[in-house]
Structure formats: structure tokens, C-alpha cells
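Before drawing any conclusions, I needed to go through one protein's amino acid sequence and its C-alpha cells, quoted below without any editing.
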Amino acid sequence: MPVSEKFPIRIAMLACGLGTGLLIFAVLVIGRGEVVRLITHDTVGQALDTELWIADLPDGTYLRAGSSDVKWLGRLESGGAPALEREDQTVLIETFIVDDTTTREAVRASMAEKYGLADRVWGAIHSNKPVVIRVELLGDVTTTAHQNPNGAPPRAQATP
């Protein structure tokens, strides 16, 4: 491959690396605000944890996915009973995809205010039409409710 054909590939790789570095910087250095832990299950019942931002609006509590392709969103739709850990309390939840422009904008504004620059960086990297999920709390979970059947602790998901 001639050098001139490699140049666009290198530029794309550099842009991707810079974007990833900026996101890491925003999350680690600038501060993240409140982070909750979503507990979902894979197809064999293995508990998986995902750290997420959360928005509290007058009409409910919401999570946001960067796209419909994220693994944790797929597990919400097909897995066992999900739970949410927040402020040292773990609660079973029910979730609903919200496809309402007004609610999506309210969640965006709430997260922008709550998470500041980190949220702006997140928005620059993800799609302009994120998936918004309304969360309904169903009740307290015992401390072992999200443990795996064999007693092993939940496995943390590498990427949301």
C-alpha cells in the first residue's frame, strides 16, 4: 500500500485515540458525579455489573445508553431481573425504553448539568440519538440477590 493511502488510516486512528484519551481524561480527572451500578445477567445467568450515570427528573429516574448496540441494554431486554445499586442500596428494577423527544432532551439536560464537561465529552463520542431508559424501583434486594448461582461475586463488565 503506497504511503499516500496509509495517511487517511493513520489520521482516523489518531482521531480515535485522541477521542478515547479525552473521554478517559474527562471521566478520571474532571470527576464523574454520581455513578450507579446496574446489575444485569447474561444468557447463562452470570451477573454483570455496569457503572452508569443517572438522571432524576420530576417524573422518574432515567439511565442513558450511547446507542442501541450496548451490551448492557441488550441484557436488560433479554436477561433476568435487573437491579440497581445506588447509595449502598440495591433494588430490583423494571426498565422501559423511552422514545420521546421531550424526555430524551430532559435527560440530556439533567446529565449535562450533573456531569458537566464529562457529559459533553460523552456526547461528542456517542450518537446524537441516545437510548433513554426509565427505571422503576420494585423493592429491596438482599445482599446476595445479585450473586451468581455458584456463589461467586458478579463479574464486572469491561465496557458499558
In short: The chain is about 35% helix and 30% strand.
